Amino acid sequence: xxxxxxxxxxxxxxxxxxxxxxxxxxxxxxxxxxxxxxxxxxxxxxxxxxxxxxxxxxxxxxxxxxxxxxxxxxxxxxxxxxxxxxxxxxxxxxxxxxxxxxxxxxxxxxxxxxxxxxxxxxxxxxxxxxxxxxxxxxxxxxxxxxxxxxxxxxxxxxxxxxxxxxxxxxxxxxxxxxxxxxxxxxxxxxxxxxxxxxxxxxxxxxxxxxxxxxxxxxxxxxxxxxxxxxxxxxxxxxxxxxxxxxxxxxxxxxxxxxxxxxxxxxxxxxxxxxxxxxxxxxxxxxxxxxxxxxxxxxxxxxxxxxxxxxxxxxxxxxxxxxxxxxxxxxxxxxxxxxxxxxxxxxxxxxxxxxxxxxxxxxxxxxxxxxxxxxxxxxxxxxxxxxxxxxxxxxxxxxxxxxxxxxxxxxxxxxxxxxxxxxxxxxxxxxxxxxxxxxxxxxxxxxxxxxxxxxxxxxxxxxxxxxxxxxxxxxxxxxxxxxxxxxxxxxxxxxxxxxxxxxxxxxxxxxxxxxxxxxxxxxxxxxxxxxxxxxxxxxxxxxxxxxxxxxxxxxxxxxxxxxxxxxxxxxxxxxxxx
Length: 577
Ligand code: ARG
Hints:
By secondary structure, the protein is an alpha/beta fold. Among the domains are: 4-87, Arginyl tRNA synthetase N-terminal domain (Gyrase A, domain 2, 2-Layer Sandwich); 114-159 and 262-373, HUPs (Rossmann fold), CATH 3.40.50; 165-244, no CATH class. It is 53% helix and 12% strand. The chain has 21 helices and 13 strands. It has a four-stranded antiparallel beta sheet with strand order 1-2-4-3. It has a four-stranded parallel beta sheet with strand order 6-5-10-11, with helices on both faces. A three-stranded antiparallel beta sheet has the order 7-8-9. Strand 7 (279-282) and strand 8 form a beta hairpin. Helix 2 (43-51) crosses helix 3, helix 11 crosses helix 12 and helix 18 (491-500) runs parallel beside helix 21. The longest helix is centred in the middle third of the chain and has 25 residues, at 223-247. The mean pLDDT is 95. It binds arginine.
């Protein structure tokens, strides 16, 4: 890994071991970027207490044992006992050269883990809403990043494809006729179909009775009912896939692992919980009571695994997901990219699964909490009439608005190219807006802000990449031809090279913390550092051939990092913009 912070960390750590003995070789050397040097090691201050010595003396001891001649051109003790570290230009240049030559752009692989990741998870015959949009976008970015890091990522699209609503949905399908225009509506406007079924269910006792009988037939595996059920799921798949294609996310039919696949596990799950004494009957319902889960007045909150009418619930299915992902998928980590309000639900499911022995200590479940998306009124985003926003029209609007931006910035391009660019910019803007804020915070959906060409936005980064491509076009060479060698003279060149070295550790950080916004922040900083470099250092018109070659190499490395970084986020960088 080329990240100076990590290299210096290791070097200071060995100095600590050499100076104070093996007990100290694991101490965190606390390396931070500094305004007085490139980095500062703060270890001496923490160690002074432990050693009963003056911090500056401890710092002197560290420096005496520090072997960084190849990396640093200056090591200096400052203040109460900081160790200031200034890197050698040649060292930075060599590392940047390595990044440029590396097909992985300086991102080492991690030890391979099996990682099922539960994301998107819309419901059959229902409209996807902005909440589903955010889990889809964040989940997909994590799936791409973890895969790039070398993991075996197993996408699990836990669609809502089972349960009582299917009674009324199937009866409504029969009423409208299987291949009727109304049934076909599920492919484009599923809510209309759902609402119509719901209205009949509420109004007609005769229909409601049929619907209830249909649920029983579905649960007992009646072949004709199952066929109709599958018909509805298939119609919905068409709708989901249209959204996924428009969004350019990696989910396919192969990744569908909906609620229905757990059907046969639900009764055994309950039996096992009961047999092991983890679940007990309470008012006819089978419940798990866990320590530490209490509601108002200290009353224990149950996880209901079988309702008093014998039906199973959302929690039962999620218990089955844990069991399946551990036993069948051999999970090392299990990610649930789902709404923040479901935190308690997951805690209880995992608690019950642990108690049952289905979740071993070496398997880590993780809730990637998705915060709400708000409208400009600060409430959950809805249309004026109070309906949830239709995702498809939201995406179409983003593309339309992007088309206006492109028409202004690139009137020289033909209609067809402009349309293609608008699609990438509009969708990229929406996705990037979801990714650039920490996934568990709420944020306000605002087209103007997400489509702005300045600030931490998708279009800004896409534009940065496109502008670099235009430098190469103007110079009539391809970025691949820019191989250096990199030499660093100007401070702005040094800054840029240093920024490039941070990509690998940033991607690792995203893989470990599961926070894509950290990658957004890095890319935004990198693009700004590049702009500063480009203002001060002419590239194509550099004074001499060697400087030009070096600057072109830095420019090419920046382009590759931006494009690779955006790709991990699932945002495409258009050739021109
Ligand atoms: N279908 C659910 C919804 O639309 C989300 C399911 C999330 N995944 C899970 N394993 N519970 O809210």
